[in-house]
């Protein structure tokens, strides 16, 4: 599907690579990792309440106490996995460094999924619903922290987090690693991206969790304050699901001789929450009015990818991720990155791939409105042109709200503005021409009359 993104294992040599050079690079990475982890261990020792009575060792309490708020439970889980699930109350510098190196070498997302599944399950072979919900909430909190965004959550986020867990388990009460990986592959392949980004930043930066700075991101404040249909929690899980075509990737990222920096850049390529700040609100039924006319006015002429959110009866919330602009057509359109995602009451990718969208306004051979789904047999959503009802699998429901976000960055938005300005000028030009014709009053001298007559068209009542 369009959102698959399998990263190569960076700790494996290329078949044609020089083995000595590769081994030297690995030794350099290990040396840098050891230095960073050792420095972090020393900083952790300094946080002990009554000094460290056991130099070279760190108590469980000291380790866990540096994790605050929603991250406190993660600190407990991290300590447990670092001591291999034993009951030890202290961890040595050597154990800490070894465990840290193991995490830092996990660049492949499949390896990360296995590691964090084991962490959140407490070392068990299965995950229960309570642990899964905790995993979702912590993953969200860590992603915000790694993105330097202040923590925020409202009741709508809680509902979406519950929807994610419901989707993972279905009717089951426990989830195996294999079932979890299968769910991630289709529904949320980059779920642990923000988690690993945060862990990598802490371990390699020799930084305590409390030392990570956060600052409001002006472009994301509306999501934080709950002004939109989309919340920050929804934005997070969607950013871990949708293809990279919906997030703007900074260009010109230079490589470095520092293996630590190159490793960080590799991880950052998948950390995309902050890149959603390039999104722009094109249409909101709450702000602009809920009608096809207003939708058309605000959405057309935008050629970049869009995210369209539909809220309707039955706690349903859907997202139409279109990798192209909306346009009127009598045939299905949409590229390989298109997705139809249900956020509530169950979070899941319903369909993905080409030719999922249809918007008919004029053809009498097709229903007038917007259709989402791969053909009539797989149609999931149909939005009639009156914009007050929506058909969900053929069942009519009351439509509550619509939002459309442009994901093409400033360039796509500016192109839409320029196109709209040209269309307005063209309309005014035609209206002015008609107005001048009406006000002229001297039809006999009008040049248009001569042109019509030269074409053999009668222009007077006597000739008709």
Give a brief rundown of this model.
The protein has 464 residues and is of the alpha+beta class.
Percentage of helical residues?
A: 40-55%
The average pLDDT score comes to 84
CATH architecture of the largest domain: Orthogonal Bundle
CA(first)-CA(last) distance:
64 Å
CATH topology type of the largest domain? Recoverin, domain 1
What series of H and E elements makes up the topology? Answer: HEHHEHHEHHEHHHHHEHHEEEEEEEEEHH
Please give the number of β-strands.
14
Radius of gyration: 28 Å
Biggest sheet character: 10 strands, antiparallel
What overall form do the CA principal axes indicate? elongated
Structural class: alpha+beta
- Report strand %: 15-25%
By DSSP (H or I, 4+ residues per run), the number of helices equals 16
């Amino acid at each position: 599907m369009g959102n698959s993104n399998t990263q190569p294992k960076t700790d494996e040599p290329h078949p044609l690579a020089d083995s000595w050079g590769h081994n030297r690079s690995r030794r350099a990475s290990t040396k840098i990792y050891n230095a960073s982890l050792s420095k972090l261990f020393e900083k952790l020792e300094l946080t002990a309440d009554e000094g460290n009575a056991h130099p070279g060792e760190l108590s469980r309490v000291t380790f866990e106490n540096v994790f605050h708020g929603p991250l406190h439970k993660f600190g407990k889980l991290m300590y447990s996995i670092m001591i291999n699930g034993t009951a030890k109350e202290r961890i040595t510098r050597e154990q800490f460094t070894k465990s840290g190196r193991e995490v830092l070498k996990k660049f492949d997302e499949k390896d990360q999924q296995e590691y964090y599944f084991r962490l959140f399950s407490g070392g068990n072979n299965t995950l229960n619903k309570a642990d899964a919900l905790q995993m979702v909430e912590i993953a969200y909190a860590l992603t915000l922290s790694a993105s330097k965004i202040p923590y925020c959550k409202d009741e709508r986020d809680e509902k979406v987090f519950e929807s994610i867990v419901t989707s993972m388990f279905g009717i089951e009460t426990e989830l195996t690693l294999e079932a979890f990986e299968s769910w991630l592959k289709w529904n949320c392949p980059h779920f642990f991206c923000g988690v690993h980004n945060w862990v990598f930043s802490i371990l390699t930066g020799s930084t305590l969790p409390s030392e990570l700075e956060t600052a409001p991101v002006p472009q994301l404040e509306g999501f934080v304050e709950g002004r939109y249909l989309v919340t920050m929690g929804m934005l997070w899980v969607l950013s871990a699901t949708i293809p990279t075509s919906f997030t703007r990737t900074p260009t010109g990222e230079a490589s470095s001789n520092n293996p630590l920096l190159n490793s960080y850049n590799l991880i950052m390529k998948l950390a995309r929450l902050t890149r959603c700040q390039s999104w722009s609100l094109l249409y909101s039924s709450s702000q602009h009015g809920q009608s096809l006319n207003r939708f058309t006015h605000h959405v057309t002429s935008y050629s970049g990818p869009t995210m369209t959110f539909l809220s309707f009866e039955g706690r349903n919330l859907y997202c139409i991720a279109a990798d192209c602009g909306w346009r009127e057509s009598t045939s299905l359109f949409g590229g390989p990155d298109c997705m139809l995602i249900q956020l509530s009451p169950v979070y899941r990718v319903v369909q993905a791939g080409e030719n999922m969208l249809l918007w008919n306004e004029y053809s009498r051979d097709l229903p007038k409105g917007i259709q989402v789904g791969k053909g009539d047999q797989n149609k999931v959503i149909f939005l009639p042109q009156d914009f007050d009802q929506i058909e969900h699998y053929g069942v009519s429901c009351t439509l509550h709200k619509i939002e459309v976000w442009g994901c093409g960055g400033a360039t796509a938005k500016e192109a839409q503005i320029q196109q709209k300005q040209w269309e307005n000028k063209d309309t005014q030009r035609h209206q002015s021409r008609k107005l001048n014709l009406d006000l002229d009053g001297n039809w006999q001298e009008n040049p248009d009359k001569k042109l019509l007559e030269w074409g053999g068209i009668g222009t007077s009542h006597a000739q008709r």
